[in-house]
Backbone:
């Protein structure tokens, strides 16, 4: 039925979004991805922030032994992510894969020795369009670069549970398993640390649905910012950062994200944050617990991803 | 700048480049800080009417690249062109109706950006060949071992104000001081390639976006706080990087007028002097030629 507006009146105010947002209207899409092989240039070295050459290890592909809950600098890697990175050989399909995959999505191995096994998307990385997926370690050992994986993308377009707060890169079902509280018109995230936007390096100025933000922190500098205990899977908040479209400076805003990969020796790089919520400070709030924070666990990610929808 | 250098030992190379057209994609639109889509000129090709000393902001443009935007068709040769071209290098137009006209490099932005006098610039179009007299990488200041110099021609260094002070520090005149909060796209990238976009310079948009940088001009010499650009662009407490504004207005969020880095060092190695005239337009009258 076509709604009829009273003549001369303003349009009626649309009804408030239902509690829980628009979860029932989200689109799920099966996307094809392949397990990445780590790659380098013809020169084996990268140069660290102090000018020392190093060979990057764990920068993409299948990484064993790096787990959610590990310290962000526990491993001698470069952007090492907990699990496997997925890509697509066609650049445009890769961008769509990265843009539509969300934390909490199901990833099902289609080919190879691990066919039939499932994992969970926890985040993504920029530039190359990588999706980061955690698997049980026994599954990871059987994966091989080139194996096909179906990713069930679901989450982009979700309306926030609080007016003014934009959700992105997360299946709303995963919010229940994170230290996030919704009370009235405020979404409050428990985080490991609240960090200033000037520490956001690579990823700034890039589209949030496709890039993570590297925190320009080192083991030496993290202590000054209450982030010495930073772990993979932690939630962190970044002040004065609006990440609705591209990530950029906006005074009085806040962005909250998941730490999805470990530190990097490269200047301007570091532990990577996939943003999951952004909004004005007020409707979006963060409470730091530098010692006791517990973020996303492998168990929670896998349970949410495997739950029937 | 009055300072001892190793200029006599630098290696100069003649590099070929081509004026590269503006590039678009099928859907055209980009998104501004408030979520509004836009289609605006700026990157690539020949951009008229914007030269060193002119405002960097306020244009109906995105990533405004003054003058010529130059690349090489071969990817590896292009990297060499981008890495080895230095601010202040002489560029000679080598084909087309403006052949023989001269300009100078004002920075890199995944293109080598070249300021050319407006009268000659009007006769250039995409596809015209240019020759870059590349010299400057390797430049070092013997009395200032803590200061790394890059992307800076000897000609530019000579034309800048300041120099070695009695207290041993390097005096550098700057038109603006940039807080670390302003550092946008370009963070984490090689500092011999493209530039550092500065946020907080969205003239005409909200106060909550402003970091007081709307007054920047093309060619301004600026000091970026807490930036170490020796081995890439990264944050480091207590360091300073000096740059030259080589690109202008952006509507794309997280982007903005961009300095190409010419120096990096601990803050204590520098003596900064605020000087509204700290702009590389001085190069327009500086000695040029193959040795520049």
Residues:
């Amino acid at each position: 039925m076509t709604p009829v507006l009273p003549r001369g009146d303003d349009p009626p105010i649309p009804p408030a979004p239902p509690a829980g947002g628009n979860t029932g209207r989200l689109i799920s899409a099966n996307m094809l991805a392949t397990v990445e092989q780590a790659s380098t240039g013809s020169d084996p070295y990268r140069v660290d922030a102090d000018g020392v050459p190093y060979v990057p290890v764990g920068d993409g592909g299948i990484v064993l032994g790096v787990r959610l809950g590990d310290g962000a600098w526990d491993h001698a890697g470069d952007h090492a992510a907990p699990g496997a990175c997925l890509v697509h050989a066609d650049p445009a399909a890769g961008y769509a894969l990265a843009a539509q995959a969300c934390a909490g999505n199901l990833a099902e191995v289609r080919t190879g020795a691990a066919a039939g096994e499932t994992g969970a998307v926890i985040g993504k990385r920029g530039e190359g369009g990588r999706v980061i997926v955690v698997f049980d370690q026994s599954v990871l050992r059987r994966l091989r670069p080139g194996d096909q994986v179906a990713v069930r993308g679901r989450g982009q377009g979700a309306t926030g549970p609080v007016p003014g707060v934009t959700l992105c890169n997360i299946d709303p079902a995963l919010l229940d398993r994170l230290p996030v509280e919704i009370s009235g018109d405020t979404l409050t995230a428990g985080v490991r640390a609240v960090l200033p936007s000037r520490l956001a390096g690579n990823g700034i100025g890039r589209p949030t649905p496709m890039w993570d933000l590297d925190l320009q922190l080192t083991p030496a500098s993290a202590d000054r910012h209450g982030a010495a205990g930073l772990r993979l899977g932690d939630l962190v908040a970044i002040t004065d950062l609006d990440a609705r479209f591209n990530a950029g400076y906006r005074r009085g805003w806040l962005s909250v994200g998941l730490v999805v990969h470990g530190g990097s020796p490269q200047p301007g790089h570091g532990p990577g944050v996939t943003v999951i919520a952004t909004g004005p400070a007020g409707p979006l709030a963060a409470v730091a617990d530098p010692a006791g924070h517990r973020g996303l666990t492998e168990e929670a990610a896998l349970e949410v991803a495997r739950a029937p929808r | 700048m009055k300072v001892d250098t190793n200029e006599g030992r630098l290696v100069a190379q003649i590099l070929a480049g081509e004026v590269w057209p503006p590039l678009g994609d099928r859907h055209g639109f980009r998104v501004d800080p408030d979520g509004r889509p836009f289609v605006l000129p700026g990157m690539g090709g020949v951009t008229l009417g914007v030269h060193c000393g002119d405002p960097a902001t306020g244009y109906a443009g995105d990533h405004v690249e003054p003058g010529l935007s130059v690349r090489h068709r071969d990817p590896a040769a292009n990297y060499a062109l981008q890495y080895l071209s230095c601010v202040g290098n002489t560029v000679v137009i080598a084909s087309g109706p403006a052949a023989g006209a001269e300009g100078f490099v004002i920075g890199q932005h995944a293109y080598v950006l070249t300021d050319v006098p407006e009268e000659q610039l009007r006769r250039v179009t995409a596809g015209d060949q240019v020759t870059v007299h590349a010299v400057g990488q390797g430049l070092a200041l013997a009395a200032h071992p803590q200061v790394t110099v890059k992307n800076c021609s000897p000609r530019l260094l000579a034309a800048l104000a300041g120099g070695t002070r009695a207290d041993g520090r390097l005096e550098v005149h700057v038109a603006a001081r940039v807080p670390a909060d302003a550092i946008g796209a370009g963070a984490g990238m090689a500092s011999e390639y493209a530039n550092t976009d500065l946020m907080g310079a969205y003239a005409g948009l909200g106060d909550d976006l402003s970091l007081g940088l709307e007054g920047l001009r093309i060619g301004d010499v600026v000091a970026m706080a807490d930036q170490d650009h020796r081995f890439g662009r990264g944050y480091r407490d207590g360091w300073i990087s000096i740059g030259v504004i080589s690109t202008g207005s952006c509507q794309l969020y997280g982007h903005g007028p961009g300095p190409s880095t010419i120096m990096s060092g601990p803050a204590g190695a520098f003596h900064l002097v605020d000087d509204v005239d700290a702009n590389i337009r001085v190069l327009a009258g500086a000695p040029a030629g193959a040795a520049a």
Observations:
- The interface with chain B takes residues 47-51, 196-206, 214, 216, 221, 240, 242, 244-253, 266-269 of chain A (CB under 8 Å).
- The longest strand of chain A covers residues 248-261.
- The radius of gyration of chain A is 20 Å.
